[in-house]
From TrEMBL:
Regions crossing the membrane: none
Species for this entry: Macaca fascicularis
Residues covered by the Acylphosphatase-like domain: 9-99
Name of the protein: acylphosphatase
Broad EC category: hydrolase
Keyword Hydrolase: yes
EC number per UniProt: 3.6.1.7
Length: 132
């Protein structure tokens, strides 16, 4: 494997005006354009964080993009890159946006589970009041 083809993985966190400006959508698009894999998500500290994996020369191009460009309406104050390491194979097959809070789908199965849970709670309350 040529030196530029060496696979690396790196974690990142981007600071500034990076939430609410489609930063993660543009990050995903740029990563896919470069042929990288990994993930991106909004973080609790009003930052964006994620992980990149791919050939070292493409990774360095993406790091520069994250430090200097980002989405059109973003303003990047600082970019931290940590845990850079050589890897033998990619851990991901795509570049994904990770949602902070998974959507809860209230399906028929969930409805039934909630119904029986409420019955159990009610029975427990009845048993407690009878025993007192």
């Amino acid at each position: 494997m040529a030196e530029g083809d060496t696979l690396i993985s790196v974690d990142y966190e981007i600071f500034g005006k990076v939430q609410g400006v489609f930063f993660h959508k543009h990050t995903q698009a740029e990563g896919k354009k470069l042929g990288l894999v990994g993930w991106v998500q909004n973080a609790d500290r009003s930052t964006v964080q994620g992980q990149l994996q791919g050939p070292i020369f493409k990774e360095h191009h993406m790091q520069e993009w994250l430090e200097t460009r980002g989405s059109p309406k973003s303003h990047i104050d600082k970019a931290n890159f940590n845990n850079e390491k050589v890897i033998l194979k990619l851990d991901y097959s795509d570049f994904q946006i990770v949602k902070e809070w998974p959507e809860f789908k209230f399906s028929k199965i969930n409805s039934v589970v909630w119904f029986f849970l409420l019955i159990e709670i009610e029975l427990l309350c009845v048993n407690i009041s009878i025993s007192q």
